[in-house]
């Protein structure tokens, strides 16, 4: 598979909390990420809040300029934001957010919202737009009579369908979904996840799917990236990561998913809070919460290493007790 | 005798009925889950029981707490129960705490109100409660503001505050929904531990069936303002009967086994202003017959102790009250 997008050494820093006479503090949201995204695959990005998932997505789309490192799109460098080349690129990459009501204009009808990107990018002659809108609405499962509805008149799942139709209007190559189903109920969530999967197959989309819901990620994504405090701690095929997590953080994350009907037995409950990105622990950022950490973990930053075809960043990778799926979830 | 017994509780907002007669019991020291999608009335049930709904809501029916009637009860009765006997925690802890007051002051306020402690005694009790819910170095952090705590810690503080009145019943309304997966596991652990230590009853409202199964002994599934199925956790999870419960279980993606396409429930939750005739789930139900679309099924106790409101349940059971021979051929499809 060809590489659609390549990120190398990606860093992003934000300045926050400037006191009146004090020094501003910087928060490193994303800290040195290398990632290749191949055409036609679905990459899941998981991690707790503050782990830099959304910041990474914004840099992959070129909406934010990275503080260091670079993003290559189809072999060429990502153009600077707000240049004509960058604008032309918007057609090929689209973003779907968590809260559809916030992403939609409450005073525009569904049909107008979906037509707007077509008008802005002058993709079609004016008289063909309404036909394309009807086609898109059918594709995402909206009824023709909903074309004149306003977002407030729709349910949460239907609103997210409008957002998806609007993102697909340009026939993009690359779609980033940032927690697209987190705000939806379980039964509706499954509808939208299936829709995204079908569209990805039909339109040959490349997709980055950000979510904290591991169960959805596992069933949708081909490959999964686990982030902790701005760095990738583990990466690999979805099946393998969830069946046999290598990194202690991934192990805890997978085991913390409440499984219907199994109670609380055999779960790894992490001690401590997710760390503050402004005060990053030394060495391995996960060591204060890690069950296996020792002195070396406090001082050395573990690189992302390949072991048996899997990538994980942990100094104790070879000495960790083997955790199989059964032990983790059903013990 | 049950601690709380709700009978035929109905709520309507501006003439639109959202609760259609809820019957629900919570025993002493029992942990009960309340599951359902947004808008099904799981939170409204308890807000109505505690008299916390806005004035435009019309509440009828009966909510008895330890023999005392709470529906349309005078304010003084409610205020004795709220916080003192029944405490409630909500989804978003940061919006439940006052951002401009130190957490200690907020905690001491509820200790003073419900326990009558003052000064150093109240402060010592506040430190003890923060310790109990697992806030590290509680004696110094008691003087911090809510924004100086993380989301998980704010939820712990809310739990401490709810425990201040030594309640008999804790109502936890989606307490872990806004939290990260690893923190969610911590809070569920904490709730289970506190319940074991204090012996209080708990109602755990959530849309997450996994979380409910982790902390509850019994659970009720609600749909469109009605309880549609109620059973012990084991029975409910091993042998769900109502097609909606079955659909909910199937819609949850699995973390093991082969990767597969998710199985959604088709359609959407009905608009409470235009409820469908008959069973509210019938438009989305694959098992619905003509009978389902015309007659509303009641919640009927089954042989094995499961409460069910369905004419065409999955698996074996047929509601006893509707089991006439004429109907059985219909069910056998």
TrEMBL record, chain A:
It is found in: Cell inner membrane. Residues 5-254 form the ABC transporter domain. InterPro entries: AAA+_ATPase, ABC_transp_ATP-bind, ABC_transporter-like_ATP-bd, ABC_transporter-like_CS, Oligopep_ABC_C, P-loop_NTPase. Its main location: membrane. The keyword Hydrolase does not apply. It is a peripheral membrane protein. One of its GO terms (molecular function) is ATP binding. It comes from the Bacteria. CDD domains: ABC_NikE_OppD_transporters. Keywords: ATP-binding, Nucleotide-binding, Transport. Gene3D superfamilies: P-loop containing nucleotide triphosphate hydrolases. PANTHER family: D,D-DIPEPTIDE TRANSPORT ATP-BINDING PROTEIN DDPF-RELATED, TRANSPORT ATP-BINDING PROTEIN. Belongs to the ABC transporter superfamily. This is ATP-binding cassette domain-containing protein. It comes from Aquamicrobium zhengzhouense. The lineage of its organism: Bacteria, Pseudomonadati, Pseudomonadota, Alphaproteobacteria, Hyphomicrobiales.
Automatic annotation (TrEMBL), chain B:
One of its GO terms (molecular function) is ATP binding. PROSITE patterns: ABC_TRANSPORTER_1, ABC_TRANSPORTER_2. Pfam families: ABC_tran, oligo_HPY. It comes from the Bacteria. Keywords: ATP-binding, Cell inner membrane, Cell membrane, Membrane, Nucleotide-binding, Translocase, Transport. It is a peripheral membrane protein. It is found in: Cell inner membrane. Belongs to the ABC transporter superfamily. This is ABC transporter ATP-binding protein. It comes from Aquamicrobium zhengzhouense.
